[in-house]
Amino acid sequence: xxxxxxxxxxxxxxxxxxxxxxxxxxxxxxxxxxxxxxxxxxxxxxxxxxxxxxxxxxxxxxxxxxxxxxxxxxxxxxxxxxxxxxxxxxxxxxxxxxxxxxxxxxxxxxxxxxxxxxxxxxxxxxxxxxxxxxxxxxxxxxxxxxxxxxxxxxxxxxxxxxxxxxxxxxxxxxxxxxxxxxxxxxxxxxxxxxxxxxxxxxxxxxxxxxxxxxxxxxxxxxxxxxxxxxxxxxxxxxxxxxxxxxxxxxxxxxxxxxxxxxxxxxxxxxxxxxxxxxxxxxxxxxxxxxxxxxxxxxxxxxxxxxxxxxxxxxxxxxxxxxxxxxxxxxxxxxxx
Length: 336
Prior knowledge:
Helices cover about 30% and strands about 20% of the residues. The chain is α/β, with parallel strands linked by helices.
């Protein structure tokens, strides 16, 4: 039985839904806005988080969608196929998937709660402790001073040189380096640079190398690191995975990128069949979405270098009282 088939027939009753907007002023100076979709039914609630990055898009989340009724999870997903979740076009091309995921994850959460099951139980899988890494653009040494056991995912910077990379190697704490080659017009874009690529793969010989550009002769700069290449931003579906210029040995799974639970599960299953190792990623969630990506990690890729650290890690300066890796496996019914 496929992963989707294991949950597709779960009955879910929806009486209505509400929307909850959250805002957080981040340490880096921008305001993060998300919207939580709260499905209500049979005295219970199921939640999902719209992580669309354009703040104005959260002003126009629809409030009158025809979701009331008793459905199978599969039928409710098909109903969402027929509904318009946007008034106009999203400010970011990923917005369609992010909003659909909010409704899909809320549907799965409510279905699991109404059927008194956790995600692992529904899928016949164990929920295990969750290894996580801390994603940062700042020096990891500041974090290690207060929590020496932390591991890191670092966003590469254009001014990285070999002496800096050697210092990072000596720390032996960097597990993933993100080259951000597939972003366009954002504050995190990083232009492909063969010298930088070569320095990273040579000086950090054990780190996963995420989202490297493989065209325009850049592949030669990554020679010898093929088994460490990973993708994130280009993959929103199984067809995207199939369309990559090579079959990676690693993949960063950000559930909200996939839009539907079915699409997420299909991609995870394909990776398991092909021997592609997985780790989870987040989208600066402010609400239930963060706990949900942790629960998905506990079921599917608990031992990966998961970029799913508790939200408190995004709140400011390093401090010693933050939860440490691994996180205990989630308990109770639902997706979070």
